Amino acid sequence: MKKIILPIIIVSCIISGCHLSEHTSELKPKASIVGGDGFTSTQRYQILSWTIKSIENYRGNSYRCSAGHKTVGWGFNSKATGIKSVEDIHEADVLFRDIVDSLYKEVNEDFPQLSYLQKASVVSLMYNTGPNIKNSQLYAKLKNDDIEGATIELHRWNKVKNKFGKKVISKGLIRRRQLEAKLLNNNFTMDDYYKLKLEVERIYAKQS
Fold this sequence. Notes:
The protein is mainly alpha-helical. Helices cover about 50% and strands about 10% of the residues. The chain has nine helices and five strands. About 30% of the residues are buried.
């Protein structure tokens, strides 16, 4: 993930708790209007958030990710984000929102022609890869509106470096890219939405 400057956490939000309804933000319009994809604006924002959260999972204690980076919360790489600890899942939600908001603004500026769910796919990818993706063939193909070519490139981002510095295929990344590809190709269904919802609900339930 790229390094960003995070705003001060709003204490009242942490106390009240931030759950599956997600935060009010620039990404989530107040009016829940059903669009051409069959989802309301609220559901679209949830899909963006849950796509990332379902894969990253939540960890209250610091750990080493598959790439060997010190990580906490919703996959917060401490070196990239400066986040070294979180008080609980509610604080992690606030930090998560700020990171995702920042990434979405970048993606929206680069690809205004994409649908919301297509942008959600790119946000999830950038959350995982950081700014390096901007120099990739994938990004170039998206710039040229080549969704088919971009999807092929997307599936190639499925490797991590092991402790020996060798790139190896990650099962977790394969699953993530499959989900992102559904979003990028506008093939994400209501069944997919409820599967994501259930996965994230289970993560929150463990923190109760």
